[in-house]
Design a protein that fits this description.
Layout (H helix, E strand, L loop, with lengths): L2 H10 L1 H21 L4 E10 L2 H4 L12 H14 L2 H9 L5 E6 L7 E8 L2 H22 L10 E7 L4 E2 L1 H41 L20 H4 L13 H20 L4
Antiparallel strand pairs: 1-3, 1-4, 1-5, 2-3
């Protein structure tokens, strides 16, 4: 693509280019305003050992993290992500998307809960509901156990407000800007090509075509009269003002010459 040529066309059709740039900016602004969010809210829930398990460590649950706690946390995570629980939360008005994962940076049984949605209030409510559901599912798994033998949970962190995900928010805006830039570059060139085509067509129609020179047909060369033609009477018709006697005299002389030639006698 010739950059200098494209810039020349854009300057040539500067009004059209300005309108396209303005429409692109307006479209980007509308995309930023229309597509709400997405916002995200997060919390962390840690699982603690039971009183019975913590006795060897002076009843300190923070010194009793072991593999059974991580296994229990994974079981609870799968339960809350079950479609049955998702549908139940949506039925209560918590329709935003949420996810639960084991904390990749933690050494203990910690679950990372994140809720994502178009509104701040919605994601905050969904995050709080999912966090409560994690603790509720942990208790339901231990319904038949004594309180001293039950694993407990603790909310370690929780977002006090939803945060805007700038990268996801900017995706539709960037898409609009890219499409607008392509159209801004393409449309003036298309218009210029159409104008040039029409201008060239008018020039060709205004040009006077060259006249075709035709050579006249050549007349056939005169042929000598044959011997048989000499005996034929003249087919000449008298012209205006020519007397009939003259034509008769000419025919008589022609007949005499013909007779002399056939007899072979010289006079």
């Amino acid at each position: 693509m010739d950059v200098s040529g494209a810039l020349h066309i854009l300057r040539k059709h500067w009004i059209l280019t300005s309108v396209l740039v303005l429409l692109t900016l307006v479209g980007a602004w509308q995309a930023w305003v229309k597509f709400q969010g997405p916002y995200q809210s997060a919390s962390q829930v840690s699982f603690l050992a039971s009183q019975q398990t913590s006795k060897p460590n002076g009843n300190n649950p923070y010194m009793s993290f072991d593999d059974p706690l991580s296994t229990t946390a994974d079981i609870v995570r799968r339960e809350v992500l079950d479609p049955r629980i998702v549908a139940a939360l949506a039925a209560h008005g918590f329709k935003d998307t949420y996810d639960i994962q084991m904390d990749p940076l933690g050494t203990g049984p910690i679950l990372d809960i994140t809720a994502t949605g178009p509104t701040k209030a919605g994601v905050m409510a969904t995050q709080a509901a999912v966090t409560a559901e994690v603790q509720n599912q942990l208790q339901q798994l231990q319904t038949n156990l004594l309180p001293k033998d039950q694993i407990t949970s603790l909310v370690v962190t929780r977002s006090d407000k939803a945060t805007l995900l700038i990268s996801k928010k900017a995706r539709p805006v960037v898409a609009v800007l890219v499409v607008g830039l392509i159209l801004t570059l393409a449309i003036p060139q298309m218009v210029d090509a159409i104008q040039n085509r029409g201008r060239n067509r008018r020039k060709r129609s205004n040009q006077r075509p060259w006249a075709r020179i035709e050579t006249p047909p050549t007349a056939p060369a005169p042929t000598a009269p044959s011997y048989s033609d000499l005996g034929r009477p003249s087919q000449l018709t008298p012209t205006v003002g020519q007397r009939a006697e003259t034509n008769g005299r000419v025919e008589a002389e022609t007949a005499n010459r013909h007779g002399s030639t056939s007899s072979g006698v010289d006079f």
